[in-house]
Amino acid sequence: MLNKIGEHFWTFPCKDWQWMPETKNSTYLKILSRFEDKRAAAFSIHQIALMGASEGKEVGQWFGPNTIAQVLKKLVVYDEWSSITIHVALDNTLIINDICKYAVISKSPLSKLSK
């Protein structure tokens, strides 16, 4: 996910970019801050564990691929800075109309979750 967020904000492919200790790129640092081990970080393990409860998973339980995808879909709504939307295709089915709908929904957490 961190790689995809980086691709969203940088014009060069993230896979070819290498971190250097002297890196001061503000966009890179802002993206990295979203994953810090702090409760306030949008995608911290704290937020993932807490949001997992809405998927029926208690702290300490295994989150399978679908559970973590659903949790990240909910968490990304609250990241005001990134403007990223996550759509989880169920049963290996991708509905183009759904993708188009999510691409134009406002960044409001309530409007995204109610759709």
Automatic annotation (TrEMBL):
<keyword id="KW-0963">Cytoplasm</keyword>
<dbReference type="GO" id="GO:0004197">
    <property type="term" value="F:cysteine-type endopeptidase activity"/>
</dbReference>
<keyword id="KW-0813">Transport</keyword>
<comment type="similarity">
    <text>Belongs to the peptidase C54 family.</text>
</comment>
<keyword id="KW-0653">Protein transport</keyword>
<keyword id="KW-0788">Thiol protease</keyword>
<dbReference type="GO" id="GO:0000423">
    <property type="term" value="P:mitophagy"/>
</dbReference>
<keyword id="KW-0378">Hydrolase</keyword>
<dbReference type="GO" id="GO:0016485">
    <property type="term" value="P:protein processing"/>
</dbReference>
<comment type="function">
    <text>Cysteine protease that plays a key role in autophagy by mediating both proteolytic activation and delipidation of ATG8 family proteins.</text>
</comment>
<dbReference type="GO" id="GO:0000045">
    <property type="term" value="P:autophagosome assembly"/>
</dbReference>
<feature type="domain" description="Peptidase C54 catalytic">
    <location>
        <begin position="15"/>
        <end position="101"/>
    </location>
</feature>
<dbReference type="GO" id="GO:0019786">
    <property type="term" value="F:protein-phosphatidylethanolamide deconjugating activity"/>
</dbReference>
<keyword id="KW-0072">Autophagy</keyword>
<keyword id="KW-0645">Protease</keyword>
<dbReference type="InterPro" id="IPR005078">
    <property type="entry name" value="Peptidase_C54"/>
</dbReference>
<dbReference type="GO" id="GO:0015031">
    <property type="term" value="P:protein transport"/>
</dbReference>
<dbReference type="GO" id="GO:0005737">
    <property type="term" value="C:cytoplasm"/>
</dbReference>
<dbReference type="GO" id="GO:0035973">
    <property type="term" value="P:aggrephagy"/>
</dbReference>
<dbReference type="GO" id="GO:0034727">
    <property type="term" value="P:piecemeal microautophagy of the nucleus"/>
</dbReference>
<dbReference type="InterPro" id="IPR046792">
    <property type="entry name" value="Peptidase_C54_cat"/>
</dbReference>
<dbReference type="Pfam" id="PF03416">
    <property type="entry name" value="Peptidase_C54"/>
</dbReference>
<dbReference type="InterPro" id="IPR038765">
    <property type="entry name" value="Papain-like_cys_pep_sf"/>
</dbReference>
<protein>
    <recommendedName>
        <fullName>Cysteine protease</fullName>
        <ecNumber>3.4.22.-</ecNumber>
    </recommendedName>
</protein>
